[in-house]
Sequence to fold (341 residues):
Amino acid sequence: MAGRESTLESLARMKFKSWQGCRVFVTGATGIVGSSLVKELLIKGAYVVALIHDGDPQSELYRSGTIQQVSVVNGSLEDFSVLERAINEHEIDTVFHLGAQTIVGAAYRSPLPTFEANIRGTYNLLEACRIHRDLVKRVVIASSDKAYGEIDVLPYTEDLPPLGRHPYDVSKSCTDLIAQSYYYTFGLPVVIARCGNIYGGGDLNWSRIIPGTIRSLFYGDRPIIRSDGTFTRDYVYVKDAVNAYMVMAEALEEKQIQGEAFNFGPKQPRTVLEIVDALRHLMGREDIEPLILNQAKAEIRDQYLSSQKAEQVLGWVPLYSLEKGLGETIKWYKQFLKREK
Fold:
């Protein structure tokens, strides 16, 4: 099996020559992963079109000036005509679908907007790709480990079914099923990424544990932990996630990759308390104890992934240790918060 998978990887890499001149459509371009992905695509010579719903000057896409180097399509995932026009008029050959409502708490409080963005947005985009199948050669769908729901078997492997129960998890389970439907029914060349919790500079959702903890420690405040602190997760550095998306897109040249899903995780899951303690240590604020609320709702207790398939088939392995990734992340936030302060 390993030999066959290595052959697949080699064939895919041989077929994909270069990003130079590729015409790429990125949804969710203002997010933490989208901003980094757009920058990497530009470095490699791609022509990038970004779907922008709300222009956010705090987004790294704007702050870095990268927005000046891309073509912008204004609109939302819920508007099919916007997506169809973007793909047709810009003659898109590669799609990275990262756009979504990504906050678990927001989905719990108000599920309808999450279902609209994450489910309707996915089938709208895939239908636009199907209509313009003569243009679109590669579609990478950003899903999540949350698509699996809460399963007793750990770590999660790709052969497990998507069984989300809570609103955000269900939206991601649906994303996966819809994407695979478009592959199996219409032959659309899609591949699905299921990542653990992605972190890094540029994430301004302060309710998330890593940016929220860094900001609290920076100001000398107690970090807030919504759960009891023992919930276990994978934490993937944003540069490793971007590398995963790029590798998947390149591998889509090989038909045996199409329709597949791949897990991406760091091989070593961590509890929330371990993450907070690592940040306290790296920032020299071990004197500040976290405030544990134990009030988390609609969140899975233990969830982490096996990335063996991605390693064997795609040759992907995380390049950043937790300490190195957190170190770069802290540096970014310190610069950001100094300006804010």
User: Anything to note?
Assistant: The domain at 2-196+235-266+301-319 is CATH 3.40.50.720 (Rossmann fold). The chain has a mean pLDDT of 93. Residues 111-131 form the longest helix (21 residues). DSSP finds twelve helices and 13 strands in the chain.
